[in-house]
Amino acid sequence: MNPAHAARLLALLVFCFGAEAANVEALVRSPVGTPVGDAAVVIEPVSGGYPKRQRTVTIEQRDRDFIPYVSIVQTGTLVEFPNRDPFKHHIYSFSPAKTFEIKLYADKPALPVLFDKAGEVAIGCNIHDWMEAYILVVNSAYFAKTGDDGKATIRDVPAGHYRLRVWHPRQKLEAPQREIEIGAGATATKLNLLADVAPRSSKPKPAIESGKY
Ligand SMILES: [Cu+2]
């Protein structure tokens, strides 16, 4: 084996087995201490790469709503938008990170949508005004979404230097990003985080009538 190959192999081995990994446990609360659900907790490596995961994510249209309301995906992720309702949806986004439209469709659109640029994407439906979903596209493999209890766990984060971001689609102001250190040999890092979020002022969803949607 020539030295270049040997060095590459060694680098690969260090990448796979050498780095200590820790879980990051976050608790996101409002300024008055209420748990905040549907918040994205993202840690991005300050330098260096992160594992690229080829994933396909699904956002359903069901009972005239998007499920889930918030998704966090890595740049380069394909998202499928299957329509589970017995009538058509017509979804779109005008967000700079991804502008797209899937015109009146039933069942599953032929092609998934590629989210290849980091940023926030707001999605709506032309037929059902109250339908809304959000995708946060990130340059990282380390992220999680809080449950109703405000908790999110990011698993197996290698030791290193990261930028921490908390994001919510209805945040009044995004908290400044700060840097955190995941120490080698750490088993868990606990973070107490703040998000000031406006109440969900959904446009009313009318009762479904027979023959109408
Ligand atoms: Cu719709």
What does this structure look like?
With 213 residues, the chain is mostly beta strands. The chain has 2 domains: 21-50 and 141-198, Sandwich (Immunoglobulin-like); 51-139, Cupredoxins -  blue copper proteins (Immunoglobulin-like, Sandwich), CATH 2.60.40. Helix content is 8%, strand content 46%. It contains 1 helix and 17 strands. The chain has one helix at residues 3-18; strands at residues 21-29, 40-45, 56-58, 60-62, 65-67, 70-74, 77-80, 89-95, 98-105, 113-115, 119-125, 132-138, 142-145, 151-158, 160-167, 178-182, 188-194. The strands form 5 sheets. Strands 6-12-11-8-9 form a 5-stranded mixed β-sheet, with no helix packed on it. A 4-stranded antiparallel β-sheet has the order 13-2-15-16, with no helix packed on it. A 3-stranded mixed β-sheet has the order 14-1-17, with no helix packed on it. Strand 4 and strand 5 form a beta hairpin. The N and C termini lie far apart (67 Å). Mean pLDDT is 89; it is low at 10-18. Residues 64, 89, 125, 127-128, 131 line the site of copper (II) ion (CU). Residues 64, 89, 125, 127-128, 131 line the site of copper (II) ion.
